Each structure stands twice: as C-alpha cells, then as structure tokens.
Design the sequence.
C-alpha cells in the first residue's frame, strides 16, 4: 500500500485521477519530494511547511492538517529503507474553466518509491540555460515546463543539470537544484526570495556550513564570477550535494571536487545519519 489518494491507501498501480483534474489540465497544483534515509523521512517538517506555503501561495487550502499528512508519510514508508515520498495537491476535479471551482475538494496524493542513493564519487556537469520562468519560483508548483526544457537542453549537451541565468546576467539556481559557489573559501548562493525555490537541502547546507565554520554570503553572482569560482556544487533532496566539475564545458577550479565541497558533503551525510539513524 504505497499510495495514499484522497483519503485511501492502495497499491500505486491502482491510483486513478480524472481527466478533468486541474493538475492534469492546467498544472494547477503544488508538490513536495521528501527523502527517506534508513526508513525515516529526513527534514519532514520543513518539507510540509513548504507544502503549506506553496498551497497558500496559489490560494488553495491544505487538503488535510499537516500532522495527518506527516502520519500518512510515515505510514507510506513502513518497510522501506532508502526511499522518496512524492506529495501532490491539485485544485481538484471540475469542468474546465480558468477560474477556481467553488466546491471541488483538492486532489491529494502521496506515494513512496525506493531510491538508489547517488554514488559517492558522482560529479555534475552543468549547462547554462536562460532562466525564463515566472516571478514566483519560491512556490513549488507542478507547472515545471521551463525546468523540463532546461534539463532536456542540458542532457542533450551531455550535461547533468541546467544552470539558470537571468537576462540581467545573474545566476539563480539549477533546473531542479540550488547552486553554490566557493570563492576564496567563502560560500556564495542566491538569496531566498521569489527568484529561487528555497531548497530544504539548501537550508540544511547553510546550517552545515555554519557548523563547519565556512563563511556564507547569500548574494547573487553574475555568470562570469560563478564561472571563475574555485568550487561549485548543487543541492537537492534526491541529488543531495553534487560537486560541479564543469560549466558549459569549462572546468570549475581544478575540475575535481574541492575541499569545501567535500567537507560540506561529508558533514551533510553525517547529519542525515544522526537525524535518520
Ligand atoms: C527549481 C528547484 N530548485 C531547488 C530545488 C531543491 O530543493 P530541495 O532541496 O528542497 O529538494 C528543487 C528541487 O526539486 C527545484 O526544483
């Protein structure tokens, strides 16, 4: 029973949603992805707080109280060790009209799937892509077309991730990750706000950096400064801390993961072991 759909647990293959669901027709919904280490969801509370913020941001109520959703998540991962939980809330099923339906209950689903943890020596190559997303990137909405197009462009260029750069020349984040750069021992990342999705992993890295004594500047960098960084890495719930070795075919620093990146990566793994023993 790894799917919870509108109040019922069932096998994932048995889940059915109407063709008139607003998530399907309009992308009118929000989502979360939570990582499960050793059977325990990591940082579940911040993920659920962000789900609530995303719902509020698109003027939609939460489908169930957060404590109940947390209970659903815990039940979905019973018997799993390394897994992810995907949660999605849409504005429900209604005849196709742009304006919000008056009485449609939201469609709420959550399911778990096993994950393969990233290999310890995995590195990323990035491709620069134009950040042509909307002005509310802090909301984790299911309309991900610009992100998909960026990721596809990166993949076609033999890269692992797209690096979004705005038309004013500032680097924002990855197509499905937050971006960090190390310059002279200081860690730089775009400030939280409407131009990026404030990652739960990003926030965790800021904590880890403080604990490791690494100075942080939450300030946007222009692309040439990012390209000249000594080290770079991107972060995400499933990607964790991925060292970046090249951007648009040019090596970052020495072209191998640097000491600050490796230190943060190792401290992050220790933290997941402490919180999910
Ligand atoms: C655009 C974007 N930025 C950042 C992230 C990283 O967020 P988190 O660390 O919460 O997974 C994601 C994750 O999906 C994302 O889609």
Sequence:
């Amino acid at each position: 029973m790894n799917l919870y759909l509108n109040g019922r647990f069932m096998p994932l293959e048995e889940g059915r949603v109407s063709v008139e669901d607003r998530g399907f027709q309009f992308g009118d919904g929000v989502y979360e992805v939570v990582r499960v280490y050793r059977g325990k969801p990591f940082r579940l509370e911040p993920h659920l707080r962000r789900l609530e913020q995303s719902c509020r941001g698109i003027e939609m109520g939460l489908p169930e109280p957060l404590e109940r959703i947390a209970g659903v998540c815990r039940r979905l991962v019973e018997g799993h060790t390394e897994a992810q939980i995907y949660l999605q809330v849409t504005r429900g099923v209604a005849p196709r009209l742009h304006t919000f339906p008056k009485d449609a209950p939201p469609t709420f689903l959550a399911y778990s799937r096993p994950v393969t943890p990233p290999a310890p020596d995995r590195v990323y190559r990035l491709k620069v892509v134009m950040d042509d997303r909307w002005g509310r990137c802090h909301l984790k909405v299911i309309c991900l077309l610009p992100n998909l197009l960026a990721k596809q462009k990166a993949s076609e260029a033999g890269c692992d991730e797209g690096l979004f750069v705005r038309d004013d020349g500032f680097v924002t984040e990855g197509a499905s990750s937050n971006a960090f750069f190390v310059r002279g021992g200081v860690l730089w990342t775009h400030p939280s706000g409407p131009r990026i999705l404030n990652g739960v992993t990003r926030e965790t890295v800021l904590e880890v950096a403080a604990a490791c004594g690494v100075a942080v500047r939450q300030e946007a960098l222009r692309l040439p400064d990012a390209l000249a960084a000594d080290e770079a890495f991107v972060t995400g719930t499933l990607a964790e801390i991925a060292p970046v070795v090249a951007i648009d075919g040019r090596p970052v620093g020495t072209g191998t993961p640097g000491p600050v990146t490796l230190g943060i990566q190792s401290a992050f793994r220790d933290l997941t072991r402490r919180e999910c023993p």
Remarks:
- The mean pLDDT is 98.
- The chain has seven helices and 15 strands.
- The radius of gyration is 19 Å.
- The longest strand covers residues 29-37.
